[in-house]
Amino acid sequence: MKRTKDGLLILKKRIAKSARLQALVEEERANHQAALAIRAARKKAGLTQAQLAKEVGTTQSVIARLEDANYKGHTLRILEHIAEALDQRVEIRLRDMGSLIRGPRVNGQ
After folding, report:
1. Angle at which helices 76-85 and 49-56 pack, to 10 degrees?
2. Which of 11, 17, 78, 93 has a 20 to 30 Å separation from 61 between CA atoms?
3. Does domain 31-93 have CATH number 3.40.50.300?
């Protein structure tokens, strides 16, 4: 088998072999998606972090942390409070983790 210098391919292969790395990647993906969703919804509503914080009953710094993809303290409760303040709802989906490594499935394979 030919060796590759493609860093992304090497990383994908290492992740595919390690349940621990797969879990870490998925945790980071979830944190990133939560942060992006909060920020996008706030901006769509035309609110500043301070304005959203007031609606939620918290501080601007809490909203800033929640919008940081590196923050690991997202909870369903705070996400529900933010969604309510933005007249939205929280939606959670479970997805096949295999697609994380292998790419999308074609014809159920």
Report:
1. 110
2. 93
3. no
For the chain, the domains span: 31-93
Q: Which residue has the tokens 């304005």?
A: 51
Do residues 31 and 62 lie in contact, with contact meaning Cβ atoms separated by under 8 Å?
Answer: no
pLDDT in tens, the chain (109 residues): 678 788 888 888 888 888 888 888 888 888 888 899 999 999 999 999 999 999 999 999 999 999 998 888 878 888 899 999 999 998 887 677 665 554 443 444 4
Six-digit token pair at 105?
A: 């499935």
Sign of the CA dihedral running 74, 80, 82, 86: positive
